[in-house]
Design a protein that fits this description.
- The chain is of the alpha+beta class.
- The protein has one domain: 3-Layer(aba) Sandwich (Beta-lactamase).
- Helices cover about 35% and strands about 15% of the residues.
- Strands 2-1-14-13-12-11-10-9 form an eight-stranded antiparallel β-sheet, sandwiched between helices. It has a two-stranded antiparallel ribbon with strand order 3-8.
- It is globular.
Length: about 350
C-alpha cells in the first residue's frame, strides 16, 4: 500500500460526502494479509452501523449455489424446470415467437445470460420508481407474472450476451430453497453466517425486523415491505465490518472451493445503462482502464454494487478489498465511480 494512500482515501471520501445528496456514508478498506485497515464514517455511520446490502446480496445467493454444487446437489447445467413448477414458468421466456423457458439453466441465471428483462427498470407496473413513491410487497409469483408482460432481449445463453435482471437471482433463490429444503434465510445462515460467525447480518423476514432507511435525494424512505420482498436478489442487512469478512471469504475460498472461480470468470458486457460493468458467474467485473479513469488505471475490480449505494469489491492487482455504503438511490453509479477512484489511489 502506498504511504500516501490514507490521505488520498480521506480526500476522496470527504469529496463525495460533501455532495448534498449524501446524508450518511461509510467505507472500510483492508488488504488481504490483515496488515492494513482504514475506515471512515459520515452522518453518524461507522463500520458497525446496519446497512442494506441491496444487490450485493447476490453474492450470498451465488455462495449458496456454489456450495450446493460442491456438495453434488445441483449442477450449473441443470434446467430451471427441474426445480420450479412448469405451470408457473410457462410463457416466461418467449423470444421472437419461440418459447425458451424450458431451456433456461442455473448457469443462465447466475451469469445474467438468460435474456430475461428487468422489471425494475423496464416495467411501468413495478419499478424502482414505484418503490420511491410507495412501499409495496411482492413475491416470486408476482415477479414472474410481471416479467411475462415484457419481451426478453435474447435467447438464453446467447454467446457474448448478458442483461442484468433481478428475476435471475430471485429464481436462483427458489432453486436453493428447493434443493436445500430450507428457506433462503436459513440457507444463508447455514452457508454464510454460521461458518463466518456473522452476528449482525440477516435477511429481514418481517417489517418488525430492523431495516435501515434508504435515501433518495433529500428524502429518507422507509421501505420495509419492499426490502423484505427482495430476498435472494438483495434484501440482506449487514455492517461494513461483517461485509468485509464475507467479501474476503468469498474470494479467498473459505465458503466454497476457490478452484471453481475460473469457471465463473467468463464475463459479458451488460446493457448500456450498466456502464463499464461486465458480469461473470454471480458477480461484476469492472476494468480500470476505461474512459472513467482517463485510461490511467490498470487491473480490475471484482464484486458487486447495490442500487442503494452499497459496494463490495476486491482489487486483485493490489490485493485490497473495498466495502461500504453511500446510501443514495438517486445516484446508483456513484459507489462504482467512488471505488474506482479509491483503487486508483491505492
Amino acid at each position: 500500500m502506498k504511504t500516501h494512500s490514507a490521505a488520498a482515501f480521506t480526500k476522496a471520501f470527504d469529496r463525495i460526502t460533501q455532495s448534498h445528496y449524501i446524508q450518511e456514508a461509510v467505507v472500510l478498506i483492508e488488504d488481504s494479509q490483515g496488515n492494513y485497515s482504514w475506515s471512515r464514517g459520515y452522518g453518524g455511520r461507522d463500520i458497525d452501523s446496519p446497512l442494506l446490502m441491496a444487490s450485493i446480496g447476490k453474492l450470498f445467493t451465488t455462495t449458496c449455489i456454489l456450495a450446493l454444487q460442491e456438495r453434488g446437489q445441483l449442477s450449473l447445467n441443470d434446467r430451471l424446470a427441474m426445480y420450479i413448477d412448469d405451470q408457473l414458468l410457462s410463457g416466461l421466456h418467449v423470444y421472437q415467437g419461440r418459447e425458451y423457458t424450458s431451456k433456461l439453466t442455473v448457469s443462465d441465471l447466475l451469469f445474467q445470460a438468460s435474456g430475461l428483462p428487468d422489471i425494475f427498470e423496464e416495467s411501468k407496473n413495478a419499478t424502482n420508481a414505484r418503490a420511491i413513491q410507495q412501499d409495496f410487497s411482492y413475491d416470486l409469483d408476482d415477479m414472474i407474472r410481471w416479467t411475462k408482460q415484457l419481451k426478453p432481449h435474447f435467447a438464453p445463453g446467447t454467446k457474448g450476451k448478458a442483461h442484468y435482471a433481478d428475476i435471475n437471482f430471485d429464481l436462483l433463490g427458489a432453486v436453493i430453497e428447493k434443493v436445500n429444503g430450507t428457506t433462503i434465510a436459513d440457507a444463508y445462515e447455514e452457508f454464510i453466517y454460521r461458518p463466518l460467525k456473522l452476528t449482525s447480518t440477516y435477511l429481514p423476514l418481517s417489517v418488525d425486523d430492523h431495516i435501515p432507511s434508504i435515501c433518495y435525494k433529500e428524502q429518507r424512505l422507509n421501505l420495509p415491505l419492499f426490502v423484505c420482498s427482495c430476498r435472494a436478489s438483495g434484501g440482506t442487512i449487514t455492517t461494513a465490518r461483517e461485509l468485509m469478512i464475507f467479501l474476503k471469504a468469498f474470494f479467498g475460498g473459505k465458503l466454497f472451493n476457490s478452484a471453481v472461480m475460473h469457471t465463473l470468470a467468463q464475463y459479458n458486457r451488460l446493457q448500456l445503462t450498466m456502464g463499464p460493468i461486465r458480469y461473470g458467474g454471480g458477480y461484476m467485473r469492472i476494468g480500470l482502464q476505461t474512459l472513467l479513469t482517463a485510461f490511467r488505471g490498470s487491473g480490475e475490480l471484482l464484486g458487486h454494487s447495490g442500487t442503494s449505494g452499497s459496494f463490495a469489491f476486491y482489487y486483485p492487482k493490489k490485493e485490497i478489498f473495498f466495502v461500504g455504503d453511500l446510501n443514495q438511490l438517486a445516484k446508483p453509479s456513484w459507489p462504482i465511480r467512488f471505488v474506482m477512484q479509491l483503487a486508483m489511489k491505492a
